[in-house]
Amino acid sequence: MIVAFSIAPATADEAGGVTEAVAAAVRVVRESGLPHETNSMFTNLEGEWDEVMTVVKRCVDVVAEVSPRVSLVLKADIRPGRTGEMTGKLDRLEQSLRESSEG
Q1: What is the Cα–Cα distance from 69 to 56, expressed in whole angstroms?
Q2: Which residues have CB under 8 Å from 5's CB, separation 6+?
Q3: Distance in angstroms (rounded) separating the CA atoms of residues 36 and 63
Q4: The domain that contains 23 carries what CATH number?
Q5: What total number of domains does the chain contain?
Q6: What pLDDT is attached to residue 102?
Q7: CA distance 18 to 31
Q8: Beta strands in the chain (DSSP E)
Q9: Coil/strand/helix, residue 14
Q10: CA–CA separation, 97 vs 41, rounded Å?
Q11: What domain range is 88 assigned to?
Q12: How many angstroms from the chain centroid is the CA of residue 8?
């Protein structure tokens, strides 16, 4: 499965920022060893259901250490038996675009 999730404390630090809390969550993702990528809006994470959800919960827990309230947005693509889909889906899209521009 692939999940795209965004996590942030619902309360900001003294300077009004959430960067440090989000960075702590991204560290959890990176240390998980699962395929992942982070962009300006979401972190994408790929793996089996239990391992992915364990990482997401750990991210919530580290953000909760600095905020009594945590915001989590999660979207999942659940496709048993498939791996490498974070890049595979994009590869298929690019191939389709190339084919449509050639014809």
Answers
A1: 15
A2: 42, 43, 45, 56, 59, 72, 73, 74, 75
A3: 19
A4: 3.30.70.930
A5: 1
A6: 84
A7: 20
A8: 2-9, 36-38, 43-46, 70-77
A9: coil
A10: 24
A11: 2-102
A12: 12
d(CA 101, CA 91): 15
User: 9: helix, coil or strand?
Assistant: strand
| Helices first, then strands: H and E counts in the chain | 3, 4
Quickly count: other Cβ atoms within 10 Å of residue 24's Cβ: 17
Read off the tokens for 79.
Answer: 């496709």
In the chain (103 residues long), the average pLDDT of successive 10-residue segments reads 95 72 96 96 96 98 92 96 90 92 80
CB 2 within 8 A of CB 76: yes
Report the DSSP beta bridge partners of residue 91.
none
Edge-to-edge strands, sheet with 43-46: 36-38, 43-46, 2-9, 70-77
